[in-house]
Structure prediction request, 175 residues.
Amino acid sequence: MENSDENVKFGICPECKVRENDSSEKKIYQCPYCKGWFCEKHIEPKLVITWNVIERTKDPILKEKLYEEWRKEGGHPCSVWTMQYFENLEMKEKEEREKFLKVLDKIKKLEEINLYAKSSEVSKKKISSKDVAVVLVVLLCFFLIILLNYPTAVHYIMVYLFIVFVLFLILVILK
Ligand SMILES: [Zn+2]
Ligand SMILES: [Zn+2]
Prediction:
């Protein structure tokens, strides 16, 4: 607190008068924020907030900060300083939020790259020859069942051919 001659004089401190019923004249200083005059004990600006407001604050970090301010002894409730306090807080939060978002953005981009890499790995796995062979075997079995339900000479030959083909595929898979 700057204490040049301009912001020091003798007078009654309104905080002392209201809180301690002390109307004696003493050295008082001008608050650079609200321009009010207060004694040495009450010159420090304090937040104009109630206990209820602090209790309702959801952000735990802000809540702790507000408790700290609220617990400070002496000082005077200064609306101008309170406004500035919250403006600064908002600016800080904005900066922190922007920083946080930037970091988040980077993480997201990294995750996207990772996801892309993973998905391409998965698709590579999907097109493995083993999978194709399995699908073919299932299809062949399906045709086999249909053919067996219509037993003519031609179909019997085809059934044998299919069985040979299936065995060949099983050999390919087992390799
Ligand atoms: Zn005072
Ligand atoms: Zn003030």
User: Anything to note?
Assistant: The pocket of zinc ion (ligand 2) is lined by residues 31, 33-34, 36, 45, 76, 78, 81 (CB under 6 Å). Strands lie at 8-12, 25-30, 37-39, 45-46, 76-77. The helical segments are 14-20, 51-56, 60-71, 79-126, 129-148, 153-174. Residues 129-174 form one domain.
